[in-house]
């Protein structure tokens, strides 16, 4: 309220306002960023003019609210590379393309609900049929063939893989639930994925679960995470795309979808996946895997699962990567550097683990774990990578772009038009923009084996073929090819098929 005309305003109002400002300054609830800004202000007082100017620029940056949202390099949005700018625009950009026509209300619809699959009579791990058992034997390896499991289980890989993997990590014991509750929960979650989706179906969820479990077995994650972290990672992976409508967030916002209205256009799908997963779980005690947890344990697990599912939003990709690189990679490299100095024998693996094990760092690692698992297709063995590349292109082209054109909605990713789509080009751009740096950073936590396998690379990458012709060994090749080259060339050469651009 204005002090004008108010008896308590005027001369008496100023000191009162000053008092309240002073009171706020003396409060102990000061935010860390305010402390930093105050420290810089104090430093400025005794600094030469050039330093004061530089610090002014620092303060300007610190006062923005998006401290970890990097400014994308200009080449990512450049006009001469429509594939890259389309991917960045469609998956990352904060600005949704605006509708051309203004009749949103006529096009509102909720997310597609697939036909629930008939529930399998499977009741426990011991009842898994032999032919499925034999496929699942390779489950702990990176080469595990999820597509083979999809076929053998009649498109229900999540229940079978989930049972096997959750048993390996003793999830039922952690949650204090009988196996029957886990089976019923897995069935319910799997039936809530749309088997009509080319890509975002329960096989993708099972694939992400598989990659997550693989990462959890790596030396550094194993030591840094506790049992609750592992359980949260596995559950988050299983539910992270539940009820996915095969449309992107930008599409849902553009069409004024009910989910976009519900979540205010913010992380629409990711909020929906996390929320629905908990709503489904609490529907009935027969599927409630959390029923025997204490209130505190449930709260912590729920928070961790939600945080990971939300981290899969590509709009936040560069922010998560930047935080991870600044906090985790720098810590690891610093410890490794200090360990290599002869005078400092005190830094060893134990030191790295201690520094990585803080709750904040474990959160960053869990986010990166699910992000890498979610988009690990390009670093899988070639035949799997190829299937996934075709599926995502089909989903974007057929289930999104075709509909956008039909309904007069803005086309979010024009490169995914079935008449002109080039799978190799889209994959290469995706790898360049999102995969290389992320897996480079993730490599410090866990080696992802497929990218370093020179033997496999030799059979598919043109550079490798040339190297082989020159008589270079696999070891020479590994030295010559950076991982970035290997990933990139692998996808260009493998996915280039007759009849495909
Ligand atoms: Zn996903």
UniProtKB/TrEMBL annotation:
- The active site annotation covers 200
InterPro entries xref list: HD/PDEase_dom (IPR003607), PDEase (IPR023088), PDEase_catalytic_dom (IPR002073), PDEase_catalytic_dom_sf (IPR036971), PDEase_CS (IPR023174)
> Cofactor binding mode, per the note?
Binds 2 divalent metal cations per subunit. Site 1 may preferentially bind zinc ions, while site 2 has a preference for magnesium and/or manganese ions.
Q: Which residues bind Zn(2+) 2?
A: 241
Q: Where is the signal peptide?
A: none
Q: Which GO terms describe its biological process?
A: signal transduction
Keyword Zinc-finger assigned to the entry: answer is no
Q: Where is the PDEase domain?
A: 124-501
User: What Pfam families has UniProt attached to this entry?
Assistant: PDEase_I (PF00233)
The record's EC number reads 3.1.4.-
Which residues does the annotated region (Disordered) include? 97-119
- What's in the keyword line of the UniProt record? Hydrolase, Metal-binding
Q: Where does AMP bind?
A: 200-204, 241, 374, 427
UniProt GO MF annotations: 3',5'-cyclic-nucleotide phosphodiesterase activity; metal ion binding
CC cofactor = a divalent metal cation
Family listed: Belongs to the cyclic nucleotide phosphodiesterase family.
Indicate what this protein is called per its UniProt record.
Answer: Phosphodiesterase
